Amino acid sequence: MTQEQSNNGLPPKARRATAGLPKGWVWTTIKDVCDELIGGGTPSRQVPEYFGGNIVWLTPTEIAKHNILTIYDSREKLSELGLTESSARLIPTGAVLLTSRASIGFVAIVGCQLSTNQGFASFVCTNALMNLYLAHWLKHQKQKLEREATGTTFKEISKAKLRGFDFPLPPLPEQHRIVAKIEELFTKLDAGVKALNEIKVQLKRYRQSVLKSAFEGKLTAEWRNAHKGELGSASILLEQIKEERKKKLGNRYKEFPPIDTSELPELPEGWVWANLEELAANEPNSITDGPFGSNLKTSHYTTHGPRVIRLQNIADGEFIDEYAHISPNHFNSLKKHQIFAGDIVIASLGSEPPRSCIIPESVGVAIVKADCIRFNTHPLMKNRWINFALNSDPTRKWGAKVVHGVGRPRLGLGKIRMIPIPVPSATEQNQIVSEIERCFSVADAIEKTVEQSLAQSERLRQSILKRAFEGKLVPQDPTDPPASELLEQIKRDRREQERTVRGKLLRKNAPALKGNR
After folding, report:
1. Whole-number Å distance between alpha carbons of 299 and 46
2. pTM for the structure as a whole
3. What CA–CA distances, in Å, run from 128 to 30, 147, 486, 495?
4. What percent of the chain is modeled with pLDDT above 90?
5. CATH code, 315
6. CA dist., res. 63 & res. 107, Å (int)
7. Do 75 and 85 belong to one domain?
8. 363 with 440, same domain?
9. Residue at a domain's end among 424, 440, 466
10. Which of 141, 207, 267, 308 is the Cys-Cys partner for 324 at CB 3.0 to 4.6 Å?
11. Distance (Å, rounded) from C-alpha 117 to C-alpha 95?
């Protein structure tokens, strides 16, 4: 029975305060159940003495996205001077941290006295409110918090709005039962999610194992032995490509330098090593990078128009359909960087270069951005073969040796032109690609099931929270003191505190008042 059903005889105001809630619960607001809502601040970076002390100072990036953790440390720390000279404040142990700016709605518990930057709102709970109950409720409100946020450069939910949020308050013993049940169920869910994520890691290893086997010639070893004498040599294939290039370029043709194979794996009989550039089409800009500097900036992006292919579009061998556009006029000025369906786009920047993917037909008219390399495969080579080769473990290991930069690892265009690619005959390329795709399709089917299970676990997590804050997750205990008594106690405590403060002020000012008579 809901509170609304059981309290029809109450006055209208009391009925509104308990509408839709279980017996003993009451609607209130954040400001009524929290003693304080604390912001944060950042000292000036121009003063080194403000940093490097012992005061824990958090930024939103340090708050876990999926779990509610207790925080005891930070990457960066403030000095006493830095705290004093900024709007950062010390937040007491047990307070609830909420990221309120940019990344909104991530929650943690304060494990020791600490401070934060301005990307937080920190709640100091009264004795009527269990901090973990509030933390889980705030986590459940993430979408609402994001909707209520305002701002242009950074979205932010104001403390004024947070203070006025309607909040379902159960009796204190029930808060403890609800939190215990949530954490029991979430622990089981987390174990399941961990197992599912481990399967994803294993699938990634499996795919790399398939590629390694493919480019060592082991994946088609039996097939190759069964077709001995029927397969042409890859050296003949490369010679054909070379002769075409000579004919097209004439006096401009230059021989490619020989490949140093001393640190490369041994290839099966009939295979050869080739530089990536040797396998490009005999056309201008067959291997080229995107426009740098002011030619293409974020401010040039539009909501419609030709596509811009960026690093965000390149996964491990797969194209990610993430959108960015420029105007037709701007596209025409950058047309030499155009990329076409069937081309390979290679990431020259970021983790594990040279990862790559193939541009699908659905992309339409597009250019590549800086740090993306457009590669047009020679018609005698299979683009899917080269794409798999670029994402294979042997090529990644080669890339790791020649990449430069630590924070932003990069492979220059010159290095990418020289990537060593194992080349079998055209017939065997087709066979190996078919085998890889057959193996990958099995992995893809398993991964799809895993992703569905992960999505279901997140829906279940939200369902648990919804039931918790509707009073349906644990049974009510009729002997629990009602939440309305908690609110009355808070009001009494605050009135008493105000009287105490006023009394101290009067006693402090009494001599001055007496002297003025």
Report:
1. 29
2. 0.77
3. 12, 28, 6, 16
4. 72
5. 3.90.220.20
6. 7
7. yes
8. no
9. 424
10. 308
11. 15
Examine the domain organization and report whether 373 and 462 are in the same domain: no
Residues 368 and 452 in one domain: no
Domain count, the chain: 4
CB 98 within 8 A of CB 144: no
DSSP, res 370: T
Closest among 400, 337, 333, 397 to 367, alpha carbons compared: 337
- pLDDT digit string, tens, across residues 338-383: 999 999 999 998 877 888 999 999 999 999 998 999 999 999 999 9
Which residues sit opposite 98 in a β-bridge?
A: 107, 121
What domain range is 363 assigned to?
233-424
Residue 266 predicted with pLDDT over 70: yes
Looking at the structure, do residues 180 and 43 belong to the same domain, yes or no? no
Structural tokens at position 78: 């403030």
Q: Distance between CA atoms of 3 and 26, rounded to whole angstroms? A: 8
pLDDT tens-place string over residues 190-218: 999 999 999 999 999 999 999 999 999 99
Query: What is the C-alpha separation between 2 and 24, in angstroms, rounded?
Result: 9
Return the structure tokens found at 454: 């992960």
Same domain for 418 and 439, yes or no, is no
Which segments of 102-249 are extended strands (E)? 103-110, 115-116, 120-125, 166-169
* For residue 19, pLDDT beyond 80: no
